[in-house]
Amino acid sequence: MPEKVTQEQVYSALRKCMDPEIPVNVVDLGLVYGIKVNEENNVDIEMTMTTRGCPLHDTLVSDVKRYVSKISGVGGVNVSIVWDPPWSIDKIEPSVRDQLGFGKPKLRFQVDYEKYKPLAKGKLINEKDGSLILKNEKDNGFMVNQAILDFWNSCDGTRTITELADHFSNKLALPRQQVEQEVVQLIQQLLESELLNPEH
Hints:
By secondary structure, the protein is an alpha+beta fold.
């Protein structure tokens, strides 16, 4: 009989799994609503996403499954995405929320959509398990997915935020306004993570 997998083990595996938009793990973000482990060590995870219908999130479910599957003796891993109750910033661990600066209306980086041309800095590390890590010049690593990597690579200092939003709106065939919000959020995250050159 294999050892019983515990909820604690699942939570600790999920603490290694970062949300693609906010570089914080899915547990501290309050995205995990419930974990059930049955007699056969099959794990059912009920979780939500920070935003609906975002192309960046396709990889989050596979990341969650990959980390939980590494637990010794674990059976199948099933992830259900639910939208009720909807996620809100209030669900983030308070200490993490303060650290992220949520609740402060002013963004740390005020960027001019028409003038600022983001330029990627840092380097990409391919981990053996298929994870993609971007490292900044201080050697801090941030786990990203292919969509964020494509975006980071497209920040080559030649396009403004408006032009990047146009480009990705066409590429992803998504509404321009939704893409612009995503682009601005990503630029904020990458600036915070010191993976872009700040505005000159």
